[in-house]
Amino acid sequence: MTTPVLRRVVRRETHSPRSVAFAVVVLIGIALALYVAVELILALAAQPALLVRPMAALESLAGLPSNAPVAAGVAGGLVAAALGLWLVILALAPGRLSKHEVDAGGRVAVVDNGVLASSLAQRVSDEIGIARDRVTVGVAHRSVDVTVRPGAGIPVDKAQVTSLADAEIASLKLARPVRTRVRIARPDDEEKAA
Amino acid sequence: MNDTNRALNRTVLMIVGVILLLGGGAAATAAALPAVGEVWTSSGKAVLDGLRSAADATKIGDTDLSWAVIGAAAVAIVIAVVLFVGLTTLVSRRSRTVLRSSGSQTPLGRVTITEGFAADAVKNSLAREDDVVAASVTAHTVRDEPVLHVSVTARRGADPRSVVDHVDRLMDGLAAVTGTDTAAYISVHGGLRSRFASDAPRVG
């Protein structure tokens, strides 16, 4: 029994509100609008402009293709377009936060991915007897990565770690199923990588 | 948890993004292709001429003032004010409420539980848990319904399942005492506080 109200709470808690981007865009918009108003009023009062007269600014914008060097025009346009594309992506992408919903009976619970990861790492380390700082766990939205770096000559059974991690993840009762990937990093691998 | 209008946030981002994308793309192609550049310049000239004639047509007497320019300045100020109002909705929209739950009427009277009591009860009980660094309870109104939010900072390596189950049992107990099962939302966090907290005390 999870009510629509609780579904709404979970959705809001696991997705970004995009407030920061909104605030930045709106602040820039306010600054621009105020600046335009000031320039217009200065032009009305026949006072010298702060930076540029509104009409002169529009004229230079209209004459951009012939006045400005081609490279500068293209680069400026592309930068503006890239910024616009980024904003469109921000507007449309789900913006999932790194949290997982876990089953909590009639209530709802959301757990940070970091908490899930550190709990899994602790369990794996306890069970296979490898120091906690040699187990690295990453929890993402759809997958869990477990990396164990046993010291030289210490045997670790990958299948055992996998079944251990799978059992632990199952006991967490995540609302969305995740894929488990286990990697045993051997010292010689580390050397090769280094 | 707050009532920030997320649809508004995304709509504004979308509109500004599309304007920048189209404007930037048009400017880039106008600069790169002379044919498109001609169109850009000629349409820009047309717009400018339109603006000039509008300014001339609305001149006030013999002065340099023009209603069109005054209007444009007023529009710019109105836009700034509207944007500012939009920005304030972001900060001021808190959904915190005080929760009061009244139990059933008994021969001795009625028991009323406030949010403060519920918060203290849950916090004190959680404080005894080894897995919990800190906990807080707040009440919110979501779509006119009260919702309790139990926020728990878990110790590093703590089992979130047992933390959630523990809070769930506490809420069951609270529901039994108050007589109403308020909708509850549990969040388990990690972060700096759990990283710097000491390891769980070990027995044995």
Instruction: Count interface residues per chain for the largest interface.
Output: A-B, 84 and 83 residues
Strand order in the sheet with the most strands of chain A? 3-4-5
Percent range of helical residues of chain B? 55-70%
Q: What characteristic shape of chain B results from the CA principal axes?
A: elongated
H/I helix tally of chain B: 6
Structural class of chain B: alpha+beta
> Distance between termini of chain A?
52 Å
Supply the key terms.
heterodimer, A: 194 residues, alpha+beta, GMP Synthetase, Chain A, domain 3, 2 domains, 15% strand, elongated, B: 204 residues, three-stranded mixed beta sheet
Structural notes for this entry:
The complex is a heterodimer of chains A (about 190) and B (about 200). By secondary structure, chain A is α+β, with helices and mostly antiparallel strands. Chain A has 2 domains: about 5-95, no CATH class; about 100-195, 2-Layer Sandwich (GMP Synthetase, Chain A, domain 3). Chain A is built from 8 helices and 5 strands. Chain A has helices at about 5-15, 20-45, 55-60, 65, 70-90, 115-130, 160-170, 185-194; strands at about 100-105, 105-110, 135-140, 145-150, 180-185. In chain A, the strands form 2 sheets. A 3-stranded mixed sheet of chain A has the order 3-4-5, covered by helices on one side. In chain A, strands 1-2 form a two-stranded antiparallel ribbon. In chain A, a hairpin with a 2-residue loop joins strand 1 and strand 2. In chain A, helix 6 (about 115-130) crosses helix 7 (about 160-170). The longest helix of chain A is centred in the first third of the chain and has 26 residues, at about 20-45. The relative contact order of chain A is 0.10. Chain B has about 200 residues and is of the alpha+beta class. Chain B contains 6 helices and 5 strands; from the N terminus they run H-H-H-E-E-H-E-E-H-E-H. In chain B, strands 3-4-5 form a 3-stranded mixed sheet. In chain B, helix 5 (about 160-180) links the parallel strand 4 (about 145-155) and strand 5. The relative contact order of chain B is 0.10. The chains are: A alpha+beta (about 190), B alpha+beta (about 200). Strand 2 (about 105-110) of chain A pairs parallel with strand 5 (about 185-190) of chain B, so a sheet runs across the interface.
